[in-house]
Amino acid sequence: MKRRIAALALAALLVLGLTACGGSGGSNDSGNAGTDGNDSGSSGEAVTIKVGASPAPHAAILEVAKEILAGEGYNLDIVEFDDYVLPNESLEDGSLDANYFQHITYMNEFNESNGTHLVSAAGIHYEPFCLYAGKSSAEELETAQGAQIAVPNDATNEARALMLLEQEGLITLKEGAGLSATKSDIAENPYNFDIVEMEARLLTTTLQDVDFAVINGNYAIDAGLKISDAIAVEASTGAAAEAYVNVLAVKEGNESSESIQALVKALQSEQVKTYIEETYDGAVVPLF
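Above: the chain's sequence. Below: its structure in token form.
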């Protein structure tokens, strides 16, 4: 009797052991990028990384990375946005795994203003701001008293636009205004320029309605504006490149996940660097 009970107990233990082994496979793998650092899709199914991006140049650059990632078991789902708010809100609420559209200064200001928890996983490139002619010509820039110059109305990009105008000797900002400058910080305006603040995405569509405009690189590229057409170009060395490096942003805590690191590696690859240099002719500068 004792032998029979022992045999039954041993059989039960064997069944439990087999069940446990059978349940350790990929049944919990949803195919989405995870945050535990072990999301490479080793089960054979492609892991999807959902990334928000501006159409140009970010989405185009991501298409190059997408081909690289496909060979490593990842599917890159690129979601395009035409504004600067929704991709950050979507990243914060978990609708996106990452976004790639903004520079580091804008991201930090967005966090401070909105209580979000976004961090940079890596710096990728820099887009010089440019001053373009609208209904007035470049030759009229310093002769047309009271000319309208449109600039982005969000805090970090307005300061950047004003600093470009100062770089060109067109205005002088108050000492120390720096990256927080607004048009109220203009100390000297010898040409009486009318600084018109508007949403960054509207600058290209309203260019012909103002005399001049300082335009963000991604919107200029999307509108077919070339850096060679610009009246003035932001210097790409020193503080500007550091303050305005475009980053791959993720929600805090996800920057070290396996899928995000794979995306960083793809974006900082030689293939992407070559694509940027051959496609954008100085309007986008790789920083890796």
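Residues 1-31 have pLDDT under 50 and may be disordered.
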